[in-house]
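Researcher: Structure for this, please.
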Amino acid sequence: MVTFFAAAKKVTAAPHRGSANRPTRNRDPATKKPKPSKAEPMKVQQIKQSIAIEGLENWGTAGLPGPQEIKISGVQKVIPGSEAIDTGVFECTPGTYRRSIKQAEVMHFLAGNGRFTPDGEDTIHFTGGDTLFFAANTEGTWEVDETMRKVYVIF
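Model: Predicted structure, token format:
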């Protein structure tokens, strides 16, 4: 028959650990910092290796009428306290489509290449490693030659 004597034994810190196992006393409860609740999102979020993440969410299709259907996918991140800012990773397959986002946007291309032609302005060529800054109300045409992946912030 197995018995348990530990309950009756006084447990103290192991001699080699000093007071590591002893409970600490809260000397001034007013200065104790509250622990963050588990429901609160982390203040810093990370996407490791944005260029290589798999399993992006299917965001549907885009494009101008034509034979080539553009598939778009991505992952969106919400920054606590800045929920109005749209940010994440965006990917689209080759093709042509219109940009009609009314807000300003910053994007950094991780992969792919193509062109963006703002309405009434010169064409801008992009490739992985480039960063573009769009003023609010910039509209134009995207021509994606090789599947494009970018990190974006729309604000």
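Researcher: Any notable elements?
Model: Residues 57-154 form a domain with the Jelly Rolls fold (CATH 2.60.120.10). Confidence is low (pLDDT under 50) at residues 1-24.
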